[in-house]
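Before our next group meeting I need something from you. Please put the record directly below this note.
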Amino acid sequence: MTHYRIALNFEDGVTRFVECGADEKVLDAAFRNRINLPMDCSDGVCGTCKCRAESGAYDLGDEYIDDALTQDEAEGGLVLTCQMVPKSDCVIAVPMPSTACKTGTARFVASVSEVKPFGDAAYELVLDAPEAPGFLPGQYVNIGVPGSAEHRSYSFSSSPGDKRMSFLIKHVHGGLMSTWLGDARPGEPLEITGPLGIFYLRAVVRPVLLLAGGTGLAPFLSMLEVLAQAGASQPVHLIYGVTRDQDLVMVDRLEAYAERIPGFTFTTCVADPATEHPRQGYVTQHLPPEALHGGDVDVYLCGPPPMVDAVGNHFKAAAIEPASFHYEKFTPNQAVAA
C-alpha cells in the first residue's frame, strides 16, 4: 500500500511526521498517530481544521462547503485536513502550537561517529542515530551537553534521509559544547530533542538567494543536498560571509554543489580589513542587484542578529521586497527561530 510522509509544522516550530495512506485523509492519519489536529465537524462544514499546505500534491475533493474553504483560499494553498488526501509527500503548516494538539518534540539518543575540527573556527559533529526522526532541510535540534544540564541548538548540515546526521558548530573559546567536543570520543551518547524550527526550504518556484553568516552555512548545506538530489530548475545563489579568513570552511562542499546543481552559484567574503581574501567586507556589500531579481526571489538568511538586521535594512534602502524572506538569528550558544 502506498504511503506518503506528511510533515506537520506547528507554529511553535515543532515538527512531527506521520505516514498517510494514499486514500487516507490527513486528519485521520494525524489522529491515528495521537496528534489532535484542530477539528470540530470533520465533514468539511466548519473550517476548524483549516491549515496551509506549503508543498506537495493533494486532493481536496468536493465534499466541503464554500463557507469552510473558499475557492480563493484553496487556490492560495489553504486546506481542510478533514478532506485533504495526499498524492505525494507534503508539508503542512498548522496554525497553533504543538501543545494545543497534545503532541510535542521527539526525543532520541544518538552516538558520536566523528568530530572533525576546522582549526579554531568550527567543528563538524557527525552522529549515528538509528531511530532519528525526519526533519525539514534548514531545521535544528537541541543537543544536550554531556555532564551538564545545558543544551545547545544546532542546524542540520546533513540532509533528510542521510544515514548519519551532521552539524557545523562554531568553536567558542571556553564554550561548554566546544570544550566537550575537543575531548569527545566515538560512541559517546548524546540526548537530542527535535526537529524544531520554522526556517526550512519551501517549494522552489522562483529564484532563490541564500545568505550565510559563519556557521550559519549549516542549514544551507542541508538545503543544497536536497536541491542536488531533486534537481533545481530555478537559479540559486549563495553568499557566504565570515569574520576571519580561517572561518571560511567547507568551501570545497560548495564547489561540489556548483558542479551538481545547474544554476547554483556562490560567493564568499571576509569582513576582516586585513584579509587576504579577494572580497573584503560584509554580505550586503557583495550582494549583486541581479541576485534579487527585482524582488521576485525567495530569500533565506541564517546568521547572527547584526547580520539579519543589516540585510533587512539593505532591502529597505534598495526598495526591494522579496517574494518571501525567511531568516534565523543565532548566537554562539543557541539558535533562535525568527
In short: DSSP finds six helices and 19 strands in the chain. Confidence is low (pLDDT under 50) at residues 334-338. The domain at 208-337 is CATH 3.40.50.80 (Rossmann fold). The CA atoms of residues 46 and 331 lie 43 Å apart.
